[in-house]
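Think of the structure tokens as a kind of shorthand, similar to the way a musician reads notation: each symbol stands for something richer, in this case the local conformation of the backbone. In the example below we present two proteins back to back. Begin with the first one, reading the sequence and then the tokens, and try to describe in your own words what changes along the chain.
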Amino acid sequence: MSDSFATAAELSQFIGNSEPADLARMQLFLDLASAEIRRYTAQTLSEVALDVVVFPETDWDRLILPERPVTAVSSIVVGLVPYTNYRFTRAGIIHELSEMGWSSGATVTYTHGYTETTDEYKAIKGTCLEAASRAYTLNERSASEAMGSTLMESSGYAPEVFLTMGEKMALSDFGSVRVG
């Protein structure tokens, strides 16, 4: 399981809650929001170093890695032999340069995703905080107005973590590689 894009302390600061009593509940909403973001984009998004993917035999002159952005390719092994005649793109495409194709298949070790200091990661974190805070504050603010002092959960309404259309549009740049 991948880590959340934000911490409960960050969510507390985001919503202006200076003394949160339920950090575990906040973290649960962040975990759910992070999972929803990863599900929607079909990407891990956080940096993963030395991930390994195995490609079966193919006649193509390129390999398409499942995660992006690709920041480094550490090794490509064809059979038992290291292979060095390639170039890769951030979009996860590895081009074989000898024009022989990957007929023997390949095992690729690579690094992908965004580090926490990048603007892209911060944008993803913001979306995570928005989705988690919506679920968290709905139950505290709107629910108490709609149901009196009764929490929605105890009335049979569970808080929902979801992405808005605007958030989905903002995340669309981070989605899976589509090669036609």
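Once you have a description of the first chain, move to the second and do the same.
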Amino acid sequence: MKLKSNKSPRERRSFNKSSSVKGQYFVDSLSAINEYLRFRPEVIIGIFASAKDLDGLRDEVLKQGLSSDIVRPLEGSQYSSTGAVVKLKEKKWDHFIRELDRPTNNLVVMLDHITDPRNLGAIARSCAFFGVQSIIVASNRQVLFSQASVATAMGGFALVDLVVVSSLASALGSMKDSDYQIWGADQNGEPISGQLSSDQRKVLVLGSEQSGLSKSVQGICDHFVKISGSDSSLESLNVSVAAGILLHSFAE
């Protein structure tokens, strides 16, 4: 029996135009599709599948209570590989703050004006891998959801919320009042090894690609940490690479 589509007429009409519809993005690969199906099926607008993937994906969407109509043949579409069109929206601070006491928010990442969408996407994927469910960003001078950031994250945003605030400093102040320790990544910080307490709630703040942490954010941090390289190494790592290394230490 074919299930009735649970998408509105407007959503169905815009299904084939994800690249031009605000808030809709295309993620390719079966692994990314499966992550959205497992963790956030409600954001899937549609799936384009090659002939060999069609039947399997229709079975999977039915398991999630979605209509098999959302799976369309890749042939004749604007896309060149199997993928999903997803609809994503940034989370508001007021919504996030109401959930602050959940155990899943014991480790939160904040980005201090990251402008490269691929860095945002790569950080989101690392957060998803290490169980971080929220990334806090500023509303200005900061890349948000875009085709590049969502594509780079693959299925990362199926597990990670992007929380937008007007002031990073004010958000950090609120979190500090809620007994979070604020850890800033900085070249002049201390090596991270041996500094972390497993039972302390933490915010890890990563600075911009060009200038690092802003002064207003630095003034709120409780600790500064760095990743030590060899004596003859480069001065710094790409911010998304540094995020993955630091999250590994923070999540242990």
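Compare your description with these statements about the second chain. The chain has a mean pLDDT of 86.
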